[in-house]
Write a structure and sequence with these properties.
Length: 427
């Protein structure tokens, strides 16, 4: 009787497809509901995806494109660029080359782009920008053939093979020369990759210094932060909350204020030296130089980045059951053995996350090293900032930043292999 009154039940009992209350197949209804849920979830995260795309993915893509593309020369010197395309490397610089150069100098000077051309060549051959701007002003009046003699009359430097080699390299808007310069390499007159002159080899040294100082800062934050995180995880709630406020206090203070405070504390006539003199540890004539060097960079950045080590460690330590250590000690293990073999291995996810976070932040800092580091405490990030804001060599800055990004990705991959990104604990 029930089956006769309920067609859906009859369909189910007779082996037909299950249906919803409105008579639709259950599988189709479930698929439609799943699509609706996925569509709703996508619409909810769409603003975040657009934000990441516009503020992260697109800028990084532009940076990578800028690091291998610079048309400052090729777009403004078309005749000479065409001559380079028609004549392979090693061809003699003949009258037609000087004719193309003379025409482009005049055209570029008229279009007021000769400064851009000179700046592009100046990246590869320092000191050549003024050569282009001066020649452009004189070429606007017109140069008569023979063009070689006319151009050399402007300045004999136009015969320099290094200049022509630099112009040939710049005639191709797509170039790897900025990456070569970023690892202290260059091309000779024959186009072979060789080491840059010793006075220009600065970037590899800065990369090494950045990695070493970042590793030292990461280690010091671990040494200082591990006991603090342990106290936060084991103290009674009232005391741990007070200690947490002290840990978070740097987040509530401006980075510039914290850095300038360390400048006051660490200078030779500062508070730290005065205190050491008062204690008699050092004499008044033996005051320590703790600022405008690597020591100043390490001290200031350790203080600034310390919370980024403490919080991941604390988030892991508070979940460790203290009965594990008590059980190890009841079985005969010493306190050190119980810590080393039972407690410390359980903190590795937090330690790995904190070390990864501190190291990545340290290699990207440039304000603090610029203020307290001096010439020996500068990092590669300071060189990137200099190229962005002073020399305006954005292609060089992009190449350096791309190499730094590659190093971070390698570090991330190593962390994933050793610890596992699924074990990342940030708080």
């Amino acid at each position: 009787m029930a089956h006769a009154l309920d067609p859906h039940a009859e369909s189910a009992s007779s082996g037909g497809p299950l249906r919803t209350s409105d008579g639709q197949p259950l599988t189709r209804a479930l698929a439609r509901a799943s699509r609706r849920a996925r569509r709703r979830a996508f619409l909810l995260v769409l603003p975040l995806l657009l934000f990441i795309l516009l503020t992260f993915v697109v800028p990084i893509g532009q940076m990578l494109q800028r690091s291998v593309h610079n048309d400052g020369f090729s777009a403004n010197m078309p005749a000479l660029t065409q001559w380079f395309n028609d004549h392979p490397r090693g061809s003699a610089i003949d009258e037609s080359a000087y004719a193309a150069l003379a025409a482009d100098l005049a055209t570029s000077a008229e279009a007021r782009t000769i400064g851009t051309v000179g700046t592009r060549i100046n990246y590869d051959l320092p000191g050549s920008r003024s050569l282009f701007t001066s020649a452009g002003r004189k070429a606007r009046a017109g140069l008569e053939p023979p063009f070689r003699e006319a151009v050399l009359a402007l300045d004999p430097k136009w015969e320099d093979p290094k200049l022509w080699s630099a112009m040939r390299e710049a005639s191709d808007p797509l170039t790897a020369n900025f990456y070569l310069a970023a690892i202290d390499r260059t091309r000779n007159d024959q186009g072979e990759i060789v080491a840059a002159p010793p006075e220009q080899q600065v970037y590899v040294m800065l990369f090494k210094r950045t990695m070493i100082l970042s590793a030292v800062i990461t280690f010091t934050t671990f040494v200082l932060g591990f006991p603090i995180a342990y106290l936060l995880a084991t103290l009674p709630l009232r005391k741990s909350n007070l200690l947490m406020i002290l840990v978070l206090l740097p987040f509530w203070t401006s980075l510039l204020v914290r850095t300038t405070a360390w400048m006051v504390l660490l200078q030779q006539q500062g508070v730290v030296n005065d205190f050491l003199v008062w204690l008699g540890v050092i004499g008044n004539e033996q005051r320590l130089q703790m600022i405008y060097n690597q020591m100043g960079t390490i001290i200031a950045m350790t203080h600034i980045l310390l919370p980024f080590m403490i919080l991941p460690l604390y988030s892991v330590m508070r979940t460790i059951n203290p009965s594990y250590v008590r059980a190890a000690r009841s079985l005969g293990a010493t306190s050190w053995t119980a810590f080393r073999r039972v407690y410390f291995p359980q903190t590795l996810p937090g330690l790995g996350a904190g070390a990864l976070l501190v190291f990545i932040l340290a290699i990207g800092y440039y304000i603090t090293p610029a203020l307290v580091g001096g010439s020996s405490g500068q990092l590669i990030s300071n060189m990137i900032a200099m190229h962005m804001m002073q020399t305006l060599n954005w292609s060089m800055a992009a190449a350096l930043a791309a190499l730094l990004l590659g190093g971070v990705l390698i570090l991330y991959w190593v962390y994933d292999r050793l610890v596992g990104i699924d074990n990342l604990k940030l708080g």
